Queue: 4 jobs
Job 1
Amino acid sequence: WPQAFELFLEMTQADPPCSPDPITFNALLGVCQRSGQWEQALDVLAWMEQAGVQANVQMYATMITCFGHAGRLDDAEALLPAMRRAGIQANAVVHTALINACRLCGDVDRAFRALRRMEEAGVVPTVVTYNVLLGACTEINGTSCC
């Protein structure tokens, strides 16, 4: 992951500078998520704000997944109200990412609550949503818990 951040720095310091866009920042967030660097992901969000780049749905889904891998389920859940405040509506990908974060943290009850909130928000679960939830049911302590 350090190479990705070095490349980002090189990009922004090039002559002439190359301005990062939402795709650039989402790529960096993906690097953070895959390498377990949730604190670095927070830095990326701060850089986005400084650059005047608005977070999008995919970025929120990536952050939720990043927090889930880090065991920071409260932080993952807090992103849904943050999205609403930013005027961004969570879609099935975002809600499924939260359900998966619950699965990663071993909290099947919370995963089902996330599904109910998804449905209450009028977002239709997808086959991926249900597959993630089914996985949560079978992964807790290696036995079926649902």
Job 2
Amino acid sequence: MKQKIRSEKEEIGGSYGECGQKSIIESETGEIKGHYLNATAGNCDEMMKRAAFARELGVPIVMHDYLTGGFTANTTLAHYCRDNGLLLHIHRAMHAVIDRQKNHGMHFRVLAKALRMSGGDHIHSGTVVGKLEGEREITLGFVDLLRDDFIEKDRSRGIYFTQDWVSLPGVLPVASGGIHVWHMPALTEIFGDDSVLQFGGGTLGHPWGNAPGAVANRVALEACVQARNEGRDLATEGNEIIREAAKWSPELAAACEVWKEIKFEFQAMDTLDTDKDKDKKR
């Protein structure tokens, strides 16, 4: 039994062990760094073991797939994270099986509200502009349901009744999936300050390596935030803002060259029902 426990911990440690380097990076940058260590497991006991081990390593955040793991397990983990100073990132794997077809299942806004009640600090919400599609107004509707205290009824955004969360903690939306530096103006305008922007391939795909990729994204973000605060229109001036910033950031200039032709063109499936749609169903 001791051998089995040791082997399981070594197996987890193999994927978690690189986090020990974060102290070096933190000292170089002066910023707190972390990695979303995945605590999702086949049973609740193993999930809690992984969360506890992540805490032992000193990481600031863990991740959980709340739909595959289940709401009870997710709430258990959320309470543990809140009590032990860990952030909880929520992944929504399996959501498309539930919310993508209009003829069955339920809308993601319902799943998002259920997650807010279950517990978590931020959750994938689609990007509007990347590969994780979503109609803009609908996405903004459930983003407000995630992070605001009081949301007025607004059928144009898919909010069919006024929601008062009273003092229930909010959840930050996470934009992730197929996004890169050219998307930054739109992401800044759509999601605002209280959000998380995750660039995976948009960072690692930089021709000079991971660190320059991170620099490019940071420069693009700060340029867009500064431009917005100065009163510039990100919707119409976004590309020009990025080009201006690229003149003094070689990392951003290289990223702009790599991603300039990358687009995801498709019809959004997540749309509001129109009267014509309702007539067809009848």
Job 3
Amino acid sequence: MVEEPELAELEAKTLTELQEMAKELGIPGYRKMKKHDLVFRILETRAEQSGLMFREGVLEIAEDGKGFLRVNGYLPSPEDVYVAPAQIKRFGL
């Protein structure tokens, strides 16, 4: 989960500042990215460099409250991420 202060700090930066950060992080194609995309890629790169997994997809919640983040559309795949019922409840997913 992205901490709100970090996200807010990045969103407050100018495009030029974000491009400099992206350059330092080695993000390819950063000069052509829009500000929103740069913020996302910076967060993603930082997470990966810290050993964290950054995923996006469709959250499927089963009747028993367990969830699976489906990363390849709506069908199950080995890349899917398990989401505990406590996390679903905590973040109102």
Job 4
Amino acid sequence: MIKLFADPGRVRFLTPAFILAAFIFAVPLFSASGGPADVLVKIAAFEPASGKFNCGDIAYSSLSIKNNLDETLSVWIGKSVCDPGGRWHDAPYTGPVTLAGGALSQSITLPWRVADDGSFKSGDFKVRMAVWSAPPGTKNARRYDFADRIKAFYAFNRNMEKIINISGIEFKPSPDCIKPLGNRGRLLWKNAARKDKDGSALLEITAGTFDGGELESVKTFSRGRFDAFIKIPQSRQAANKLKSVTGFFLFDPATEDEITIEIFNDGSRRVWLSTFIGGGDPAGHIETVLDFDPSDGPHAYSISHEGDRVDFYADSVLIGTISGGGATPKVPTGENMKIYFNSWFPSWKEFQPLENGDAACTGYATAIKEIKYISLNPGRK
């Protein structure tokens, strides 16, 4: 096999916007070729990476192409992989590859190194390779053909196997991502992968950024009472007020049903209590103000979910109730909910004006000291 790698002077990385435009209209097939039969350049053979890989390993994928024109043509080859979370990762493209009229190329191989960080979950990866008329991402680049393979290879991420134990309940840091919607920064794996010396789990905010972190429980839970003892970052001084929130919520990844407590980190003592059915806008929503400073130490926040009613408590005092079933329910069924904690910077109007100077002036952290859970579903813990 002949491996043709990109000339260092020609290497470019595909931008996220370009990847979206390039792939959004493609139909994911087990093994597909995307161009019509009379396309100028066709992929004649496609061999995606296969097998199992660890962090730092290189996954090679190759193809050969045929020039259907009579004259010589120059093309560029791109490669991307899609991780189990649906995020695309791009390899450097190579080119130009010059083909005489009617010629079939030798095998062209592109590498992709498996990242050694928290940017993906262990699992199956999709591989896509494409042939372009110009460097991918440039203004006049035309995609001649593409080929992809679902579940081409498996990559194991040792970084994602870290378990944070809080009161006997196992949590794992969420992979690096820009969720939730409207986040001004990122949720970073490393910002949720550490415990304090007193055993509290930490959700750190990186100094000079809008980057926070998130923890999700390994197992799911049914309806019941969830108590979390949380200390949010101190943000009393005007110069240090964080336009961010600390979230304690129950979420079903399959249905996107959700029950949330969101504590403002800006010193205002504001709290939002919400329910969601299938994502989208809140089905129920309450805004209130706490009687205490949530940054002066761990305070107890509780979600009591039974039937079509959710009661919210702060230090054992009822601060809100959302109820309602029927054709337009306000409360999820809540049979397979994960427990989540996060700290992030929303772009909500309540934090406007939004300015670059809103970034954290120093490092901050939310601390989760303890969790208690009592199931209200007989036979399930």
